[in-house]
Sequence to fold (368 residues):
Amino acid sequence: MELMDAIRGRRSIRKYTDDMPSDDDIGYILEAARQAPSWANTQCWEFVLVTDAETKEKLATTLPETNPAHKAVTMAPVVIVVCAKKGISGHFKGKAVTDKGDWLLFDVALALQNLTLAAYERGLGTVHTGFFDSRKAEEIINVPDGVTVVELLPLGYPEKEGRVTPRKEIQEFVFYNTYGRKEK
Amino acid sequence: MELMDAIRGRRSIRKYTDDMPSDDDIGYILEAARQAPSWANTQCWEFVLVTDAETKEKLATTLPETNPAHKAVTMAPVVIVVCAKKGISGHFKGKAVTDKGDWLLFDVALALQNLTLAAYERGLGTVHTGFFDSRKAEEIINVPDGVTVVELLPLGYPEKEGRVTPRKEIQEFVFYNTYGRKEK
Fold:
């Protein structure tokens, strides 16, 4: 698939069929994540692939009922629990070196953008689910100290096509040479 | 370009030629960024495209001499100063709703992964530069309250091919059903 077709075509998918993605497809999307750049190439991301129904049920309880992805976590054949090692990205000799603190959200997202594009190429849907009780999720999958759960990412074949959501026009978020200047 | 060829081929580029990317190429990579998903579709990213030599010189002073991207900021024909509106991503009704606080790093990175892949497709190099004095950069480009500078992203034609950096093997960062379990 052409890069821009993947970038333009990917949608957030919240309803899935029961069909399990093949090992080959899962390997492909993990390879895409693996290739992402990261802070000083530290690769702080870790993924727990949950297929066990009971664990998925428990993970679903970490989401507020109001989260539109609530059902997706039990419905999807795979839930990727996206973890990250803390205190590495954005750090030098154990200390955060910028005003942003830990850059783990940044590096994890670079990897996840690759992963979700590769999933789309293979006909698989995903949805970023960040609004949940991560502490509770960390207990459910036994995450050790020093590691945090960033998000839950359901993965599976879409039950139907995803909805197109609007985007800002380029001129709404791009400036030239100084903040706010619209002229080149 | 095939999606996986872009994902596998992209490198961090720190030396650039003087050639200015075309408006068409810049429009293409901004379109790629624009298509990224974000927290409740809030699209908190903003980009200031700096081509003015004096401003680039000033921005270079915000990097420590030890940052290997130091020279890239003056050498590249364009420096994208990547900004984000604070207090939107990861928030609901003005309050952070997760233990991660502001998710702006996450959403900005989703957009930047699209952007850097699209740049690579057009023959352009980039390098994430997060280790610098963002407060000083915010003054240089007159960023208002409520907006932060996340990173500097030099953009231009590579002077030479980028170096391949090693990646962890998949089995080093993937577990099954519970943290640490290597068997499916």
In short: The two ends of chain B are 34 Å apart (CA to CA). Residues 104-121 of chain B form the longest helix (18 residues). Chain B touches chain A through 78 residues (CB under 8 Å). Chain B has a mean pLDDT of 97.
